[in-house]
């Protein structure tokens, strides 16, 4: 099998999210500015299903089974069951739905919007045709990215705010932090071991942070420069658009507007691999649940405004266990 191949029939416009199914390594879901959410079988390299919103889709995620959730510029929070075809709008935000994550611990969806709110939603609560909005929680700024692990929710907003919540009590924040990164946060992703999260900024940096507020744990946090290119003697700095933690080894990949994908060992603060540059910005990354495949969305992110750019493509890269493993087994990785 080739180390990398291109996915057949990608979306017709900018790719917002690629995400693998949590237990089926061959199933990939893709959302796009072409208003679609599409399902692919990466082994057969074919599109197997698709549904649409009324405007660009900015994020999507899997729930239970073959249930998909998605949201975007039409402000609607949608649930689509690929196994039955059932499709419902759970509710709406007052502005674009920018980001979402499914809490398996609580079996509900969490959404973040440019209307400065977080929503929690349960498709089972409102009968056959309607989902139920469990709660809307007001935040100080627009929400750019969020992620959940166990009972924790990490929310990255404008103004460099990073709030941490306990999903069982959304009425108050567990921690209110200022981002370690000096510029706007682009993406946040929780570690698979539940100990912390990584965040990235528009200014070519990634920060690794820990939930435990003790001075010993906080002393471990750090940030580093990445996704920078020397062009004619000038250092060009690019946004880091995507982060994805390996499901077993805890190493992580970053993707930037330089078209680069880099694999990092966060425990030992080492760069493991830098892959050949993709044709345009890397807008999204996702690992398959078995850790053998990294999906890479090569899709211009309009950081430099309207300009000619390579077509929107999705690449599937096979990554060996050896490649994704930390250099040494650190104590944190047990």
TrEMBL record:
Output the SUPFAM superfamilies linked to this UniProt entry.
WD40 repeat-like
Q: Where are its TM segments located?
A: none
Is the Repeat keyword given for this protein? yes
Does the record's keyword annotation contain Repeat?
yes
Repeat (WD) residue spans along the chain: 90-122, 240-274
* Sorted UniProt keywords: Repeat, WD repeat
The record's listing under PANTHER family reads: MRNA EXPORT FACTOR AND BUB3
Q: What is this protein called?
A: Mitotic spindle checkpoint protein Bub3
Highest classification ranks of the organism: Eukaryota, Fungi, Fungi incertae sedis, Mucoromycota, Mortierellomycotina
The encoding gene:
BUB3
């Amino acid at each position: 099998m080739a180390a990398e191949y291109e996915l057949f029939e990608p979306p017709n416009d900018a790719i917002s999210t690629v995400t693998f199914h949590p237990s089926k390594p061959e199933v990939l879901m893709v959302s796009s500015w072409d208003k679609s959410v599409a399902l692919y079988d990466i082994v057969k390299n074919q599109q197997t299903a698709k549904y649409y919103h009324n405007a660009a889709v900015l994020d999507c995620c899997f729930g239970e089974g073959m249930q998909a959730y998605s949201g975007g510029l039409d402000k609607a929070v949608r649930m689509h069951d690929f196994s039955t075809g059932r499709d419902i709008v759970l509710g709406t935000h007052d502005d674009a739905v920018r980001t979402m994550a499914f809490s398996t611990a609580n079996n509900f969806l969490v959404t973040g919007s440019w209307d400065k709110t977080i929503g929690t939603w349960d498709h089972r609560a409102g009968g056959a045709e309607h989902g139920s909005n469990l709660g809307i929680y007001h935040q100080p700024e627009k929400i750019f990215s969020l992620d959940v692990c166990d009972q924790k929710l990490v929310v990255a907003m404008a103004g460099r705010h990073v709030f941490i919540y306990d999903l069982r009590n959304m009425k108050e924040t567990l921690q209110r932090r200022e981002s370690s990164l000096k510029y706007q946060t682009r993406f946040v992703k929780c570690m698979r071991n539940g100990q912390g999260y990584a965040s990235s900024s528009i200014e070519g940096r990634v920060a690794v942070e820990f939930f435990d507020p003790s001075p010993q744990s906080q002393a471990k946090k750090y940030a580093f420069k990445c996704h920078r290119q020397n062009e004619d003697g000038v250092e060009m700095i690019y946004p880091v658009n995507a982060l994805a933690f390996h499901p077993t080894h805890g190493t992580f990949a970053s993707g930037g507007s330089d078209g680069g994908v880099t694999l990092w060992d966060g425990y030992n603060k080492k760069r493991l691999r830098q892959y050949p540059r993709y044709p345009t910005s890397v807008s999204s990354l996702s690992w398959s649940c078995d850790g053998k495949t990294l999906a890479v969305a090569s899709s211009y992110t309009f950081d430099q405004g309207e300009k000619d750019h390579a077509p929107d493509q999705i690449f599937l890269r096979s990554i060996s266990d050896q490649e994704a493993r930390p250099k040494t087994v650190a104590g944190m990785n047990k």
